């Protein structure tokens, strides 16, 4: 974290003019590509570029393809589609270069479909920290598919499945037409424990309103301003979410929100965050925060993934109707809320 609130980017650093990137993840066989094929028929994605890892289980529906370019295809819906050839940064650079030269239509958003075994963290860190990428793109959010038939077993056995669900901004439950009601109820309860802030939607054969999955980040293009309450979803943490079976895989992952009423001293907060990421960064899966900083008019927005933090962004003023408390939302592994609060209070009093 190199920037301070006093020299952080102004409000437009939220990325109003940069292309939003949505990461679509989910475990093997959970219906990512089925969902993506359905979404690509939606007018909401007609001006999107889609990047698919070349190791994906199923390809894009060939009936959707209209024209082939070098390294990309143009779908009948107007979307551009390509595969990751090596490095994600190179693929995003290639798309931007071809867009600039007029070789492909000017896309307004990007959707990245990961492999079923991918953890979202490395992709998020790339989008948040690569200077070249940050010039043209901004992270919008993560959508994770969860198989209603096999999801419980995958959460029990597969750490990637747990992280995909825990770090998501939106969860999509698939194959609910094939699962029994009791299993769906148990899986839904478990996902709410794991990630209480993520809205949970159902999709059968990929059918879902695309608008529910797009523009889920901090910046709301319809309101032309930051939507702190929607992005943080801190109200979801008011209930006590905890795991009952400590032997269950993923029971070490928990989510919580810490609030403080008084403005905070930035140098002390910054030092605490640096110490926290240095000591426990591998277990700090995701952190979202809105901070009321002493002497600063607008809120300071924080977003971190494990050891990496996006440069803090200072808004010019608090959105109308929002309270001015500091709110820090954590998704962590083997870290107790009480320990985080105690260390924060000690750092602020030091």
Describe this structure in words.
This protein has 350 residues and is an alpha/beta fold. It has helices at 32-39, 88-100, 120-129, 131-136, 151-157, 159-166, 181-194, 228-232, 266-280, 337-349; strands at 19-26, 48-53, 65-69, 72-75, 80-84, 109-113, 137-147, 170-174, 200-203, 219-220, 225-226, 253-260, 284-291, 300-305, 308-309, 313-314, 326-333. It has a nine-stranded mixed beta sheet, with helices on both faces. Strands 12, 13, 14, 15, 16 and 17 form a six-stranded antiparallel beta sheet that branches. A two-stranded antiparallel sheet has the order 10-11. A hairpin with a 2-residue loop joins strand 3 (65-69) and strand 4. Helix 5 (151-157) packs across helix 6 and helix 9 (266-280) packs across helix 10. It is globular and about 60 Å long. The two termini are 20 Å apart.
Features:
six-stranded antiparallel sheet; alpha/beta; nine-stranded mixed sheet; 10 helices; 17 strands; 350 residues
* Mean pLDDT level: 85
> Shape from CA axes?
globular
Poorly predicted sequence stretches spanning 5 or more consecutive residues: 1-13
Secondary structure: number of strands: 17
Helix content: 25-40%
What is the alpha-carbon Rg in Å?
A: 20 Å
From N to C, what is the helix and strand string?
EHEEEEHEHHEHHEHEEEHEHEEEEEH
The fraction of residues assigned to DSSP E strands is 25-35%
Major pleated sheet: 9 strands, mixed
Structural class: alpha/beta
Please give the alpha-carbon distance between the first and last residues: 20 Å
Number of helices: 10
